[in-house]
Amino acid sequence: MQAQGVSLCLLGVMLFLCSVHARGLRRCLISMDMRRMEESFRGIKNAIQAKDTFQNVTILSTSETLHSIKPLDVCCVTKNLLAFYVDRVFKDHQELSPQILRRISSIANSFLHMQKSLQRCQEQRLCHCRQEATNATRIIHDNYHQLEVRSAAIKSLGELDVLLAWIDKNHQGTSAA
Amino acid sequence: MLPRLIVQLPALLSLLLGFRAHELPRPSSVWFEAEFFYHVLHWTPIPNQSESTYYEVELLRYGVEPIYWNPIRSCSQTLVLSCDLTMQTLDLYHSNGYRARVRAVDGGQHSNWTSPNTRFSVDEVTLTVAGVKLEVHDGIIFGVIQLPRPKMAPAGDTYESIFHNFREYEIEVRKVPGRYKSHDKIKHENFNLPVPRGVGEFCVRVKPSVSSRVNKEVWSKEECIVLTPQYFTVTNLSIFFTFVLLLCGALAFFLALQLYVQRRGKLPTVLVFKKPSPFSLISQLSCPETQDTIHPLDEQAFPKVSPELRNSELHGSTDSGFSSAKPSLQTDEPQFHLPAPHPQAGGTLGKGAPRLPEDSCSSGGSKSTDSGICLQEPSLSPGTEPSWEPQAGSDSRDQLDSGIGLVQNPEGQPEDVQGGSALGPVSPLGPEVAAGEDPAAGAFQGYLKQTRCPEERAAEAGGLEEESSSTDGLGPKFKTCVDAEVDWPLPALAKGYLKQDPPEMTLTPSGAPAGQWNPPTEDWSLLGLTRCGDLGASDWSFAHDLAPLDCVAAPGGLLGSFDSDLVALPLISSLHSSE
């Protein structure tokens, strides 16, 4: 009888610890139709990337930033990049073609939807930004500022496929096809 | 003014010379055409290129430090307008892509660089399959989509691993020479298609896609298969063998049924006539009687038949084969008159017909086979066949007669006999025979068996057959029977004989008016007599078998011997059945 009680107590403690740890490891997943954004980008890719004359320069710098991001920092980095594009890139780009502008607007609206999903995760304290995430975000901002605004905006729009692929990879399992 | 122009002139000349160094135009367009691990860079030639013009290609890994343009020497060949960059872009599916550029070079001159408009990434790869493998089984086309397996692909980089999720395939089928018809999209590499009606050549092509991607998709090469009519399929063979088994089973069943029916129809052993044995021949040879004889019966030897039996239903029973109602033996129907056998009767009654020993019918020494009808002398049957003829002598026939007794017509007129034409030759014998008959022997029991010898029987059978053919079909045909049995045992029902017991016996037919013994109806008697006459030679052969029995008067056994002979006479069986 005493042995059973002790075992039950131990089991309860283990479950509690596991739940706490799992809460920390719980990822903030985004439910988003990535295919729709990819189709929109495909429509502007040829026009946007053709205007990118600085081919040996990258803003997102995936080898130093995105490829080194750990799962715990995914939520924070995703949130920061979405804010970067919505607050800087989409506003700095001056598009004259309505067809391209419509597709860029579609992508921007999808980014706003993802920001709202991440805000709920932040309220649940699931989107804690560590130093590594902050450093990655700062590098990207520095790369963007090294170029002329219009060229930087063009280049950032041209790198949307990289960002979408990274989001799809890190948030796989919830993103709808 | 002039010194300024002289100083600026070399600068102008140098600019002109430098400009001419880059006179070569650059390729107008450069683009990638890529499939799964097959990445080829294409460019357009420059206008007015010479034979020495070649192109330089450089490649850049986008976003990977150190960022620099890597020249591809293998692509710098004269008059070559494309270059396979697969080996230089193996990590395309795990990176952000590549940038490439191309310029023309001719002699000392080179053009400007031309780059593709877009960054070369995994999105630029066109999805396709290596092929389709088709097989046909039981009228269904089974297909297996073969995914690309390029040799340059690094280990672990397969189509399924790179495009792990949401793979789909669109299938189209056509029957040569028709057009393609779309089939359902499948999500697996295996599929089966029901074969459309008919046989012929069918072609299939497949177009892959990834639903989460926007890559370009192209149809594979068509794969064709020829369908031929399959006759010897498993299904057809199984159906065929099942049908054969069912047929054999049905044949076996019907054969068994046939054998069973034949067995059922087999005659009982008691009715199976034995083949003539040598002993029978000897006995037949020793048969003293060489001619048919009518033996008058001793009336006292036979118990009188109760009057009730005269009109009993036994006479008219349908068991004997007559469908008529109970016939009355005392009807005014023409009576049968069978004269006593006369030696001069000839073939009518057989050669042995004329002689009629007195005790031929009454004694048990009668040895002839009994056909069922006993021909009796008038003196023998005064009380047995009173109704056979409307004569005054009917009172003497108060004894019941279970069989058909022929009462000799005193006048011996054949016309009084029904069907007397058949008995014409016989009738003259009547008076002559009657003279020698014992009136007391009129009563007789049952049928009288007439002794026959083999050759006479055969002749008589032939004569009877002639009679039967010559009559109108109504003439009764009598056979003289010899019945010497005093106490006849009750014959078996199936043996055809009806034994009419004397009044003290157990015969109590119902519904029979007392004191009456109606003669059998015409039908009844006719049938019975005809039946007896129809025995023919075969029947006489039966008589041959029973000759030893007939010749020896076996008390109690005579009727038994009768019975075996009378298997073909059903008319009397009815009498037994009522008993």
How is this fold's topology laid out?
The complex is a heterodimer of chains A (177) and B (579).
Chain A: H1 2-25, H2 34-50, H3 71-92, H4 98-123, H5 131-146, H6 149-158, H7 160-170
Chain B: H1 2-21, E1 30-35, E2 38-43, E3 54-61, E4 70-72, E5 82-84, E6 98-106, E7 109-110, E8 125-126, E9 131-137, E10 140-146, H2 159-162, E11 167-175, E12 181-182, E13 190-194, E14 200-210, E15 223-227, H3 234-264, H4 278-285, H5 307-310, H6 358-362, H7 429-435, H8 454-470, H9 522-533, H10 536-545, H11 547-551, H12 558-565, H13 573-578
Helix pairs in contact in B: 8-10
What features would you describe in this structure?
The complex is a heterodimer of chains A (177) and B (579). With 177 residues, chain A is mainly alpha-helical. Chain A has one domain: Growth Hormone, Chain: A. In chain A, 71% of the residues lie in helices and 0% in strands. The N and C termini of chain A lie far apart (54 Å). The mean pLDDT of chain A is 85. Chain B has 579 residues and is an alpha+beta fold. In chain B, 24% of the residues lie in helices and 15% in strands. A four-stranded mixed beta sheet of chain B has the order 5-2-1-8, with no helix packed on it.
